Amino acid sequence: MSTLASHNQNMISNIFCSGEILHYVQMSRIFNDSKHFVDMKLKYPVWRVEDEFKLLLNVTNNNPDKEDLKKFVEKNFDPPGSGFEPWIPDDWKKRPKFIDNIQDVHLQNWALQLNAIWTKLGRSISEDVERNSSLYSQIYVPHPFIIPGGRFREFYYWDSYWIIDGLLLSEMFDTALKMLLNYIYLVELYGYIPNGGRVYFLERSQPPFLIPMFNLYYEATKNDMLLMENIATLEKEFQFWMKNRSVTIVKDGITYIAFQYRVETDSPRPESYYEDVLKAQNLSNDSKNLFYSEIKTAAESGWDFSSRWFLSDGERTLNFSDLHPSHLVPVCLTSIIANNAKTLSKFFEILNDQNKSDEYNNIANDINKTISRVFWNDDEGMWFDYNIKQNKVQKGFYPSNLMPLWAKAYGTERDVTYIAECIISYLNRINITSYPGGIPTSLMNSSQQWDLPNGWAPLQYFACYWITKYWRN
Ligand SMILES: OC[C@H]1O[C@H](O[C@H]2O[C@H](CO)[C@@H](O)[C@H](O)[C@H]2O)[C@H](O)[C@@H](O)[C@@H]1O
Predict the structure, then answer these.
(1) How far apart are the first and last CA of the chain?
(2) What InterPro entries does the record point to (predicted)?
(3) Which has the closest alpha carbon to 185: 144, 233, 123, 227?
(4) Sequence-ordered strand ranges (E) for 215-288
(5) What interface predicted TM-score (ipTM) does this complex get?
């Protein structure tokens, strides 16, 4: 990152990531959605807005009321959305080939409607964001991209895996490539991919799907040149997770490698500032920082929030105050990384680098051993997250338990037919097909969005991927 770009980022972070302005504005509840303020654009340079705010504090004896703050925001900020331009992908097709393979006419119409949504979700970042980055919370990327939509106006890391899968199905190879190149740009700039396209997401990443995204694209295009040009950056991202998110587990005297989501911070999420401060209000300062770290760690997992991370004395609870993702080693993240190592090994083989290919194959095999010996539970016939505080598997159904199947990370120690039978019997025991709307996110109703009765698209995907590929056989 150039010195100027990093200077601009520090300046804008003083407004949107921490500091007095963020605190006063977010706690005043001028906006119902805390994300609104941090997505606004500064009308004037940071120093001028800061001076204006100091003046406001002076004249109000450090006690500006809601109306004062509303006027200050109106005077100094433009509404969210500035800095993005709607973008209709050039390669969008009204009727891609897959539509004609759908026999049911209702489903065919539905697929046509879905395919049309690409034209609504394309965004490019305006040139002004590159020129005047110290006025925007957006992270500049060079190519247009597809956003999740609604209040999510920017790109999100793990959402992009399914977006790219869909783009390839819709034969939008160029748009998929643009998104991949943006992520390559971000890894080169930061060494990792942030949670989403805003400076307030820079403290954390999201489930590491860059290598699987590249694999989807490679399988669709067989573009060896692209692999050759970007393999070093893919390795760089892999090393970020190895260096910053790995953990060792000792079981029966043997040391195993696994991976955790992990964020250390001393502040609330800027985009949910009010909510986080409220939840932490009765805690001491030290406990507050630990709690904020747990909140951001859970957000890095993509599962924000879920009973999956609510733990007290080794049991899952329904209480947010028991939020402890740091106590768990998630089977899903460890599976994604095993899959990434295996895919890097495949890529190096394609590029005729056998040494590197063997190196990554060995890493994948080591991680598979963890999945097979630490996460697998013979009594239940299922993989589970591992509780490192209690040294035990943390039982309970979450579709993420099935991730070793998607990742083919179950190792060689158990026959795959035996594993499949155990899993079918487990899913039958918990009556998994009896829930309306598909496979639920959990069997615990905590009123959090990543819990019963909700079902999330990525989780349906992982479960159905396996069911359609293997269960039928
Ligand atoms: O604004 C609150 C949180 O919003 C995001 O999380 C949710 O939406 C994302 C975009 O679709 C999705 O990737 C994530 O799995 C959802 O839980 C954001 O990622 C969080 O960091 C943020 O705090």
Answers:
(1) 51
(2) 6-hairpin_glycosidase_sf, 6hp_glycosidase-like_sf, Glyco_hydro_37, Glyco_hydro_37_CS
(3) 233
(4) 246-251, 254-259
(5) 0.94
CB 87 within 8 A of CB 124: yes
H or E segment and range at residue 96: none
Phi, psi of 287 (to 5 degrees): -65, -35
Peptide bond into 453 cis (omega under 30): yes
Residue closest via CA to ligand 1's atom 23 equals 299
The predicted pLDDT at position 1 comes to 73
Angle subtended by helix axes 173-190 and 224-245, to nearest 10: 40
For ligand 1, mutation pick of 204, 297, 304 (most atoms within 8 Å of CB): 304
* 304 within ligand 1 shell (Cβ under 6 A): yes
Q: What are the pLDDT digits (tens) for 365-412?
A: 999 999 999 999 999 999 999 999 999 999 999 999 999 999 999 999
Does the C-beta of 159 come closer than 6 Å to ligand 1?
Answer: yes
- Per-residue pLDDT reduced to its tens digit, 452-466: 999 999 899 888 877
The CA distances from residue 40 to 79, 143, 153, 175, 391, in Å, are 5, 21, 11, 27, 45
Q: Has residue 473 got a pLDDT over 60? A: no
Q: Which ligand 1 atom is at minimum distance from the Cα of 269?
A: 23
Radius of gyration of the chain (CA): 23
Q: Edge to edge, what strands does the sheet with 145-146 contain? A: 84-86, 122-125, 145-146
What's the mean pLDDT in 310-331? 98
From 32, 139, 156, give the residue whose CB has the most ligand 1 atoms within 8 Å, as the site to mutate.
156
Q: Extract the tokens encoding 70.
A: 């509303």
HSE-up of residue 417 (Cα within 13 Å, Cβ side): 1
* CB-ligand 1 contact for 299 (6 Å cutoff): yes
Smallest CA separation from ligand 1 atom 15, residue = 302
Pocket lining: 204 vs ligand 1, CB cutoff 6 Å? no
Find the DSSP H helices in 40-87. 46-59, 66-76
Identify residue 134 by its one-letter amino acid code. Answer: S
Q: Is the CB of residue 471 less than 8 Å from the CB of residue 420?
A: yes
- Judged against a pLDDT cut of 80, whether residue 472 lies above it is answered with no
pLDDT exceeds 90 at position 78? yes
